[in-house]
Amino acid sequence: MVSQITPEDVFFSHPSDPTSAKAPRAAQAAGGSVLNSNDGGRGPSQPQRMRLAPHQGACSQTFIRGNTVVQLRPPRHRIDVRVAAAARRVLGELVPTVPVLERTVPRPVSAAGMEPWLVWPASWGDGEIIPHEGDEGGTNDDRDRWLVYTMSRMPGQPLSVVLEQHHVNSPREYGGIGPDNTPTLDIENLVRSLARDLFARPIGQHVHRGQLGEGRRIPLGRIGSSFRERVVQLGEELPARFRPIVNEVEPALDHIEQLPWVVTHGDLCPQNILVDLVENNDSRSGDAGSERVTVVLRGIVDWAEGEWLPFGVGLYGLETLLTCRHCRGDDDKMVIDYRPDADALRKAFWDELNAMLPWLCNKKKRQAVEYARLLGILLWHGFAFDDGALNRVVNEGDPRDEEELAKLDLFLLGKSRDQKDEMQGKDAAKRRGEREGEAKESAQTERTGVKL
């Protein structure tokens, strides 16, 4: 999303003069107050520098103020603090503190070239808080006021940034485009940490399906309350090659619902996984190219789409971590494929998870978890996000859906788009051959009839 803020509501000084007193004086002259971490941002004080976060999400606008994150969200992308609180309770310091809804502000508009020195204007005062219950947001609300949340700032950098740098700098044999003597990126530690902390740990505070829903202590979210209807819709509207998978999952829904229900991240992708890098040398080899950089998990952010779901549904996120992107030679189109070490990383993940959850050795329970994993892939990549609408099944031929269809091909059928194109080409050639054979046979029959 383009960085946005209401120009009339922002006062700033030139970035080359960050200590300038003009900004607070200008704010006070206009009736504004400055945001200060010592008073919670609610009263006039000395200015506290607040800047746009370097990495922005698609559904919010994020600022950093010291050790605090200030995030603006339209009502349709509000945070369910009950889920955020559960995630914090279960995962501890791996997730931010529970977001606090501070106030609402007028809907931001584009402000290109906005300076990073911001103060909290009086017009951002205590606006009417939009109620949560029964309010699904929407364009009218989005035009009126946005929600302002504060939460703790997490350490680390997004895994997406690390992977992009790795692609540029790493040896070709590991999927990069750099020279062969550069360090390799080791994410096995990260994969094991996710198995242990993000997936196994919530089992300790799971609930059963009967404890969820209307009138219960724990609500059902958008996916948890509708995945049966969504599976039916997928079976009717997904491209035909995916429907056998849907037909396998649908009869297993009862078994999936009997699994423990755990707090589940709703957008587990490299952008929302924060990591640090630790350099280490591989003692098994003296070559310079044996240097490795280990990726260490520091946090999981953006729980706005999170909810309670059956254990295993959240495993959709593992698949994305095992992929890489590369250019297809013939037209320079980006293609999604599994990493060269994907099988080894998958084994490491399941080794760790099995060690933490011995009940996965039960064949029936493991099968239910596998169906839950397939369900998660179908739900997360079979429906277009469409700014949070989540009601349209991805469609072949729609350019907006190309990436999700490519992921479904890879995650469900084990074929990259290159392989799919090749197979489609072979199938088309086979069908042409069959049609040509039928035409020749028909012509031969006609000639034989004429002779008779």
TrEMBL record:
<dbReference type="InterPro" id="IPR011009">
    <property type="entry name" value="Kinase-like_dom_sf"/>
</dbReference>
<feature type="region of interest" description="Disordered">
    <location>
        <begin position="418"/>
        <end position="452"/>
    </location>
</feature>
<feature type="region of interest" description="Disordered">
    <location>
        <begin position="1"/>
        <end position="50"/>
    </location>
</feature>
<dbReference type="InterPro" id="IPR051678">
    <property type="entry name" value="AGP_Transferase"/>
</dbReference>
<feature type="compositionally biased region" description="Low complexity">
    <location>
        <begin position="21"/>
        <end position="30"/>
    </location>
</feature>
<protein>
    <recommendedName>
        <fullName>Aminoglycoside phosphotransferase domain-containing protein</fullName>
    </recommendedName>
</protein>
<feature type="compositionally biased region" description="Basic and acidic residues">
    <location>
        <begin position="418"/>
        <end position="444"/>
    </location>
</feature>
